[in-house]
Protein backbone atom coordinates (compact mmCIF):
# COMPACT_ATOMS: atom_id res chain seq x y z
CA UNK A 1 0.00 0.00 0.00
CA UNK A 2 1.33 3.41 -0.94
CA UNK A 3 0.43 6.04 1.59
CA UNK A 4 0.84 9.75 2.16
CA UNK A 5 1.37 11.32 5.54
CA UNK A 6 0.13 14.84 6.16
CA UNK A 7 1.67 16.64 9.14
CA UNK A 8 2.04 20.13 10.57
CA UNK A 9 4.36 19.83 13.52
CA UNK A 10 6.85 17.75 15.43
CA UNK A 11 6.27 14.70 13.33
CA UNK A 12 6.86 12.12 16.05
CA UNK A 13 4.06 9.93 14.71
CA UNK A 14 5.46 10.27 11.20
CA UNK A 15 8.84 9.18 12.59
CA UNK A 16 7.55 6.05 14.31
CA UNK A 17 5.65 5.06 11.17
CA UNK A 18 8.80 5.51 9.07
CA UNK A 19 10.84 3.58 11.66
CA UNK A 20 8.30 0.75 11.68
CA UNK A 21 8.36 0.61 7.88
CA UNK A 22 12.18 0.49 7.89
CA UNK A 23 12.14 -2.27 10.51
CA UNK A 24 9.74 -4.35 8.41
CA UNK A 25 7.00 -3.98 11.02
CA UNK A 26 4.57 -1.93 8.96
CA UNK A 27 3.83 -3.07 5.41
CA UNK A 28 3.19 0.32 3.82
CA UNK A 29 5.23 2.49 1.48
CA UNK A 30 5.34 6.16 2.46
CA UNK A 31 5.50 7.80 -0.96
CA UNK A 32 4.59 11.34 -0.02
CA UNK A 33 4.72 13.67 2.94
CA UNK A 34 2.79 16.93 2.78
CA UNK A 35 3.27 19.70 5.33
CA UNK A 36 1.35 22.94 5.51
CA UNK A 37 4.14 24.58 7.52
CA UNK A 38 7.57 25.17 6.09
CA UNK A 39 9.23 25.03 9.51
CA UNK A 40 7.67 21.71 10.54
CA UNK A 41 10.17 19.21 11.94
CA UNK A 42 8.12 16.61 10.08
CA UNK A 43 9.66 17.90 6.82
CA UNK A 44 13.20 17.27 8.07
CA UNK A 45 12.27 13.83 9.38
CA UNK A 46 10.75 12.86 6.02
CA UNK A 47 13.74 14.17 4.05
CA UNK A 48 16.25 12.49 6.36
CA UNK A 49 14.47 9.17 5.93
CA UNK A 50 14.44 9.40 2.16
CA UNK A 51 10.69 9.65 1.58
CA UNK A 52 10.48 10.02 -2.24
CA UNK A 53 8.27 13.13 -2.28
CA UNK A 54 8.40 15.63 0.58
CA UNK A 55 6.39 18.74 -0.17
CA UNK A 56 5.58 21.92 1.70
CA UNK A 57 2.24 23.10 0.35
CA UNK A 58 1.99 26.65 1.63
CA UNK A 59 -1.56 27.82 2.39
CA UNK A 60 -0.52 31.37 1.44
CA UNK A 61 -0.18 30.25 -2.17
CA UNK A 62 -3.85 29.27 -2.42
CA UNK A 63 -7.13 31.20 -2.34
CA UNK A 64 -8.80 29.06 0.30
CA UNK A 65 -9.31 25.64 1.75
CA UNK A 66 -10.91 24.15 -1.38
CA UNK A 67 -8.08 25.22 -3.64
CA UNK A 68 -5.45 24.17 -1.13
CA UNK A 69 -7.01 20.75 -0.71
CA UNK A 70 -7.38 20.35 -4.48
CA UNK A 71 -3.62 20.78 -4.82
CA UNK A 72 -3.03 18.19 -2.09
CA UNK A 73 -5.50 15.81 -3.78
CA UNK A 74 -3.62 16.18 -7.08
CA UNK A 75 -0.35 15.30 -5.35
CA UNK A 76 -1.94 12.27 -3.69
CA UNK A 77 -3.22 11.03 -7.05
CA UNK A 78 0.02 11.81 -8.86
CA UNK A 79 2.04 9.71 -6.43
CA UNK A 80 -0.51 6.90 -6.26
CA UNK A 81 -1.32 7.18 -2.57
CA UNK A 82 -4.10 4.83 -1.51
CA UNK A 83 -4.29 5.97 2.08
CA UNK A 84 -3.83 9.35 3.70
CA UNK A 85 -2.47 9.26 7.22
CA UNK A 86 -2.92 12.46 9.21
CA UNK A 87 -0.23 12.83 11.85
CA UNK A 88 -0.64 16.08 13.74
CA UNK A 89 -2.10 17.78 10.65
CA UNK A 90 -3.73 20.92 12.00
CA UNK A 91 -5.85 21.99 9.02
CA UNK A 92 -9.47 20.95 8.76
CA UNK A 93 -10.08 19.08 5.50
CA UNK A 94 -12.71 20.41 3.11
CA UNK A 95 -15.74 18.20 2.60
CA UNK A 96 -14.92 17.73 -1.09
CA UNK A 97 -11.51 16.34 -0.11
CA UNK A 98 -13.11 14.02 2.45
CA UNK A 99 -15.66 12.85 -0.15
CA UNK A 100 -12.97 12.18 -2.74
CA UNK A 101 -10.94 9.99 -0.37
CA UNK A 102 -13.76 8.64 1.80
CA UNK A 103 -12.74 5.64 3.88
CA UNK A 104 -9.10 6.16 2.99
CA UNK A 105 -8.14 8.96 5.40
CA UNK A 106 -7.13 8.14 8.96
CA UNK A 107 -6.22 10.34 11.89
CA UNK A 108 -4.83 9.97 15.38
CA UNK A 109 -6.35 12.07 18.14
CA UNK A 110 -5.04 12.50 21.71
CA UNK A 111 -8.20 11.53 23.61
CA UNK A 112 -10.65 8.68 23.94
CA UNK A 113 -13.20 9.83 21.39
CA UNK A 114 -15.98 10.85 21.36
CA UNK A 115 -14.76 12.72 24.46
CA UNK A 116 -12.69 15.82 23.82
CA UNK A 117 -12.73 16.27 20.06
CA UNK A 118 -10.99 19.35 18.72
CA UNK A 119 -7.57 20.94 18.85
CA UNK A 120 -7.37 21.24 22.67
CA UNK A 121 -8.10 17.62 23.55
CA UNK A 122 -5.38 17.15 26.17
CA UNK A 123 -6.08 20.33 28.12
CA UNK A 124 -9.83 19.77 27.86
CA UNK A 125 -9.51 16.26 29.32
CA UNK A 126 -7.32 17.56 32.14
CA UNK A 127 -9.65 20.45 32.90
CA UNK A 128 -12.67 18.14 32.92
CA UNK A 129 -11.01 15.94 35.52
CA UNK A 130 -11.22 12.56 33.82
CA UNK A 131 -9.05 9.89 35.43
CA UNK A 132 -8.18 8.09 32.21
CA UNK A 133 -7.50 9.42 28.75
CA UNK A 134 -5.63 8.09 25.76
CA UNK A 135 -5.61 8.14 21.99
CA UNK A 136 -7.87 7.15 19.15
CA UNK A 137 -7.12 6.15 15.57
CA UNK A 138 -10.17 6.82 13.43
CA UNK A 139 -11.41 7.25 9.89
CA UNK A 140 -11.92 10.85 8.86
CA UNK A 141 -15.35 12.00 7.77
CA UNK A 142 -17.00 15.44 7.59
CA UNK A 143 -17.42 15.67 11.38
CA UNK A 144 -14.29 16.90 13.18
CA UNK A 145 -12.71 13.90 14.97
CA UNK A 146 -16.01 12.12 14.33
CA UNK A 147 -15.31 9.18 12.00
CA UNK A 148 -15.47 5.46 12.79
CA UNK A 149 -13.01 4.29 15.43
CA UNK A 150 -10.29 1.86 14.35
CA UNK A 151 -8.34 1.55 17.63
CA UNK A 152 -7.90 3.15 21.04
CA UNK A 153 -5.35 2.99 23.89
CA UNK A 154 -5.91 4.22 27.42
CA UNK A 155 -3.53 5.93 29.87
CA UNK A 156 -4.12 7.09 33.46
CA UNK A 157 -4.44 10.79 34.28
CA UNK A 158 -2.35 11.54 37.37
CA UNK A 159 -3.11 14.18 39.97
CA UNK A 160 0.03 16.17 39.24
CA UNK A 161 -0.33 16.00 35.47
CA UNK A 162 0.19 19.06 33.33
CA UNK A 163 -0.88 19.25 29.72
CA UNK A 164 2.66 18.35 28.68
CA UNK A 165 3.09 15.40 31.04
CA UNK A 166 -0.27 13.94 30.06
CA UNK A 167 0.38 14.50 26.37
CA UNK A 168 3.78 12.81 26.69
CA UNK A 169 2.14 9.75 28.29
CA UNK A 170 -0.49 9.68 25.54
CA UNK A 171 2.15 9.99 22.83
CA UNK A 172 3.95 6.88 24.09
CA UNK A 173 0.73 4.99 23.32
CA UNK A 174 0.20 6.83 20.01
CA UNK A 175 3.61 5.70 18.86
CA UNK A 176 2.65 2.07 19.38
CA UNK A 177 -0.95 2.31 18.24
CA UNK A 178 -0.55 4.15 14.92
CA UNK A 179 1.96 1.83 13.20
CA UNK A 180 0.18 -1.22 14.65
CA UNK A 181 -3.18 -0.03 13.32
CA UNK A 182 -1.75 0.63 9.85
CA UNK A 183 -0.27 -2.86 9.86
CA UNK A 184 -3.60 -4.31 10.85
CA UNK A 185 -5.39 -2.36 8.12
CA UNK A 186 -3.08 -3.83 5.48
CA UNK A 187 -2.81 -7.36 6.78
CA UNK A 188 -6.27 -7.91 8.14
CA UNK A 189 -8.67 -5.39 6.70
CA UNK A 190 -12.08 -4.47 8.06
CA UNK A 191 -15.69 -3.91 7.17
CA UNK A 192 -17.95 -1.14 8.44
CA UNK A 193 -21.36 -1.81 9.97
CA UNK A 194 -23.08 1.46 10.74
CA UNK A 195 -20.36 3.29 12.62
CA UNK A 196 -18.62 0.15 13.79
CA UNK A 197 -15.34 -1.09 12.38
CA UNK A 198 -15.32 -4.89 12.35
CA UNK A 199 -11.80 -6.25 11.94
CA UNK A 200 -11.60 -9.23 9.61
CA UNK A 201 -9.72 -11.55 11.98
C1 LIG B 1 -0.55 13.96 18.38
O1 LIG B 1 -0.72 14.03 19.77
C2 LIG B 1 -1.82 13.61 17.69
O2 LIG B 1 -2.70 12.87 18.47
C3 LIG B 1 -2.42 14.96 17.41
O3 LIG B 1 -1.34 15.80 17.14
C4 LIG B 1 -0.17 15.30 17.77
C5 LIG B 1 0.88 15.18 16.73
O4 LIG B 1 2.13 14.91 17.26
N1 LIG B 1 -3.37 14.86 16.32
P1 LIG B 1 3.38 14.66 16.31
O5 LIG B 1 3.52 15.85 15.37
O6 LIG B 1 3.16 13.37 15.55
O7 LIG B 1 4.54 14.56 17.24
Automatic annotation (TrEMBL):
Q: Where does (6R)-10-formyltetrahydrofolate bind?
A: 65, 90-93, 107
Reaction equations catalysed: N(1)-(5-phospho-beta-D-ribosyl)glycinamide + (6R)-10-formyltetrahydrofolate = N(2)-formyl-N(1)-(5-phospho-beta-D-ribosyl)glycinamide + (6S)-5,6,7,8-tetrahydrofolate + H(+)
Taken from the UniProt entry, a GO cellular component term is:
cytosol
State its Enzyme Commission number(s): 2.1.2.2
Which InterPro entries did the record assign?
A: Formyl_transf_N, Formyl_transf_N_sf, GART, GART_AS
Catalytic residues at 109 (proton donor)
Q: Which residues bind N(1)-(5-phospho-beta-D-ribosyl)glycinamide?
A: 11-13
Tagged with keyword DNA-binding:
no
- Origin, by domain of life? Bacteria
PROSITE patterns on file:
GART
The residue ranges of the Formyl transferase N-terminal domain are: 2-181
- Show the CDD domains listed in the entry: FMT_core_GART (cd08645)
Keywords of this protein's UniProt record, alphabetized? Purine biosynthesis, Transferase
Q: Which GO terms describe its biological process?
A: 'de novo' IMP biosynthetic process
Alphabetically, the GO molecular function entries are: phosphoribosylglycinamide formyltransferase activity
Matching Pfam families, A to Z? Formyl_trans_N
State the function annotated in the UniProt record: Catalyzes the transfer of a formyl group from 10-formyltetrahydrofolate to 5-phospho-ribosyl-glycinamide (GAR), producing 5-phospho-ribosyl-N-formylglycinamide (FGAR) and tetrahydrofolate.
* Name of the protein: Phosphoribosylglycinamide formyltransferase
| Organism name | Mariprofundus aestuarium
Amino acid sequence: KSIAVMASGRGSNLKVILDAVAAGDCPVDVQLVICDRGDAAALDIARATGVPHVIHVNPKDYEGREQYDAECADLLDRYGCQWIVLAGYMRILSSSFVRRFRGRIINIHPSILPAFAGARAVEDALAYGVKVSGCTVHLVDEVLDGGSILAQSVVPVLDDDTRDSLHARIQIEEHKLYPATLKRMVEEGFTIEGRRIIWSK
